Amino acid sequence: MTVSACGGARDTSPWQGESGWMGLMRRGSVRVGPFASWIALVVLGALAALAPRADAQPADIAAIQAREARNADQRTLAALERFGAALIARYGGDPTLTMLGVSETEGEALAQRSPGAAPEHVIRQGERWIGTEGRQLRPWADAPVAAMHAFPLSSMRTAGIRAWLDAWRKLPGRATDFVTRYEAGYDPADGRVVVRAHVGSMTTGRLSLHAFDPATGAPIAREPPRR
Q: By the 8 A CB rule, do 194 and 212 touch?
């Protein structure tokens, strides 16, 4: 996957066809982690749910897909608000985080109970906290560096994400994209906290990763370090 600015993205990790990721997975040629598999399944599910009817016209199909993508945007932003409220109820005040991840159905974070304390990995699905066994949320920087640049939950506002989404949706071929997950953390390559959006394209059938500023939604062209 490649991170780039809006309009300058290079989609990678094709998953369609026998030569793509899903074909390789079927043949056992590629091993992927549970999170990567989950993203692929989410996008495949979205494609199946929006499969065109025999009597549907192309323009109608695109309009339906664009509307559903926008609805998914709203559900994910609402999920971020609910997860934020749950973190505040759990930790009090304005929780300090070294990583944050949220999708339409799940939120997870590395939260510090006190300055310098080891972060606690927490996951919430729906209205309940679940166990973290077999799950990992790794900072993009070394743990001590990530701890030095921990950020308050209040800095992750939906307004910045919405600004990025509004600009993204205006680009050709992007109205029907599905954002499967957002992650936020300190990016040592850029020297600041950024948000990364995991995007599944209904136009190309590819997955890509895009970074932006959490406060303004402005795209970030710098490629982040590999996890």
A: yes
